Amino acid sequence: MENILRPLIVVGGSVLLTLVIGWATDLLLRRADERHGETPLWDLLRRGRIPYQLVLCAALLRGSYDKARLLGDHRAGIGHILTLVLIGSAAWLVIRIAAAVVETSYTRYAHSRARRDPARVRRVRTQVTLIMRVVAATVGVVAAAAMLLTFPAFRAAGASLLASAGILGIVAGVAAQSTLSNMFAGFQIAFGDMVRIGDTVVVDGQWGTVEEITLTYLTVRTWDERRVTMPVSYFTSKPFENWSRGTPEMTGVVFWHLDHSAPVEAMRDKLRDLLRECPAWDGRAYDLSVTDTTPNTMEVRALMTAKDADDVWTVRVAVRERMIDWLVREHPYALPRVNTANANLPGRPPGPRSSPDGTPNRRAVETPGADRR
């Protein structure tokens, strides 16, 4: 009877004690979260309840398993497995706690500076993300090394591994040259403030928003919901446009190719009225000017400002569409025309020419239209 009750008491007691302590800890964290709703720390710490319970259970079983006298022939192997579980769950718990503390610090910082300095907030977010990846990788490597050192064969091979570390380092450096360059580029991006999560960029002709930055690659979400992934070393070796660098305000440009008789002054007044009706215009500035001419048309350019890249796109398309609609309704003569009349050659009187079958040709055809770039 004792051989049956002893293992049940040891193993069952360890599991039951783990569940009770885990439930009590989670209850305390929930009450702390209700009392201190201004900080997300307590709710974030609850995400670590699974590794926390694993640490408790593994530690209790590891310390009391010898008294259970269960599977005595495999006592060493079971103890070794419990040690590995304890190390792995402890590393998992450390990562969760570190993530909760860092995320809480960033949230407080973002709430205090979101309105005053959004660019700085995005920069800190990028740095925090990369730092957490480094911390997780470091803890994972240390935990894996600790697990390997629990095996006697690996401890015995430690001296030979250290002796050959120089040669292995050279080989690994040559083999992972590209990976290492991307990792250093990731640190350079994080702390050099070249590009941040949430920035609007134009990279290799692709316009989008930086969605994710890791130590080796960067993901840009384009305007049509595609994800473009590229190595971070691209941003340290090639030029790219960062529309969020500095202040987010931008100036949009719209071009029209119109007839020389287009009412420029009336268009300038109409542009002012259109912008006043457009919520995306920030009211800072606008302008309309003739920037170029050709024998058939003239180029009219409109400038308008907006608070960010999204709004400048909205105001551009709105002004382009509504101005063309106004010209079609009020000033159709201002739209470009293609002259298809026959040329009057020297020595030949002006007038309609006849085709070989005697049918007179039309003098001219006017084709309204506009360049909607």
From TrEMBL:
Taxonomic path: Bacteria, Bacillati, Actinomycetota, Actinomycetes, Kitasatosporales
Organism: Streptomyces pharetrae CZA14
Protein name: Mechanosensitive ion channel protein
Keywords for this protein: Membrane, Transmembrane, Transmembrane helix
Localization of this protein: Membrane
Domain of life: Bacteria
Stretches for region Disordered: 339-373
InterPro entries: LSM_dom_sf (IPR010920), MscS_beta-dom_sf (IPR023408), MscS_channel_2nd (IPR006685)
Main location: membrane
Membrane-crossing segments per the record: 6-29, 77-99, 130-151, 157-176
Pfam families the UniProt entry points to: MS_channel_2nd (PF00924)
All copies of domain Mechanosensitive ion channel MscS, residue ranges: 179-245
Bias type Basic and acidic residues, positions: 363-373
